[in-house]
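Notes from the 1:1 (GR / supervisor)

We went over the backlog. Supervisor wanted to see one worked example end to end before approving the batch request, so GR pasted a single chain during the call. The sequence is below; no edits were made to it. Supervisor asked that the structure be written out right there so they could see what the output format looks like.
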Amino acid sequence: MSDTGRQSLTDKAGAALKPDSEKSTTEHIGDKFKGTSDSVASSMQPQSEKSTTQKMGDTMSSGNTNESLLDKAKNAMGMGNKD
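Structure output shown during the call:
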C-alpha cells in the first residue's frame, strides 16, 4: 500500500526488475514520468505523514550510496544511528 499520490513499492519493484531491453518506448517514458512524479511527491510530503513502508522505499531509492540497504531501512524506521 502506498501513500496518496505515491507510487507503490510493488510498482517500483516491477518496473526495476523488468529489463530495459524488454520495455517499449511507452514503458520507458511512463517509468521516467512516474519516477519523477514520485520523487517530487516524496520531497513535498512531510516525513511525519509517511507510512513506514513509504519511508523505507524513499530511503532505499535515495541517492546516498554510502549506506547499506539495512542501514537505510533502519534509519527510515527511526532505529538507525543518530550522528
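Supervisor's comment: The mean pLDDT is 76.
Batch request approved.
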